[in-house]
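Lab notebook page, bench 4
Experiment: in silico fold of construct C2
Operator: M.H.
Input chain length: 136 residues
Purpose: comparison with the prior construct
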Amino acid sequence: MPISPHSSHHLPESLADVADALGVKLVLELMQAFGGRELWIPKSAGPDHELAKVLGEEPANALCKFIGNTAIYIPHGKAGQVLRNVHELEARGLKKGQIARELGISQRHVRRLANGDAGHGGRHRDPRQDDLFDND
């Protein structure tokens, strides 16, 4: 499901303040152009600055005024989409190897996403199971 240019609900948390202050459309444009890298936001952006070329001079300077003179990481926002794709393809009956080929990711990563392990250090805990190392 694509992110609506009118809702900040599905945006990365790190850009929520920017979206609230300057709009979701601006954040989506940042993610599309600069996603996956750290970006230096100057105090102001002239017409030849990469921000002005991507966003337009007025929105670029609004961003500079809001968070200028700092570096921010611009997430690419693809992780949530990959997870949704894995679940969708799994629901259609594809095997994990087929899903990996379809999405261009490893079968191991597909397995972790499908099992809910991604982002938890590989440690997915079933709430019905006692933790062997829990000292409580």
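Observations: The beta strands are 37-41, 70-74. Residues 1-8, 120-124 have pLDDT under 50 and may be disordered.
Next step: discuss at group meeting.
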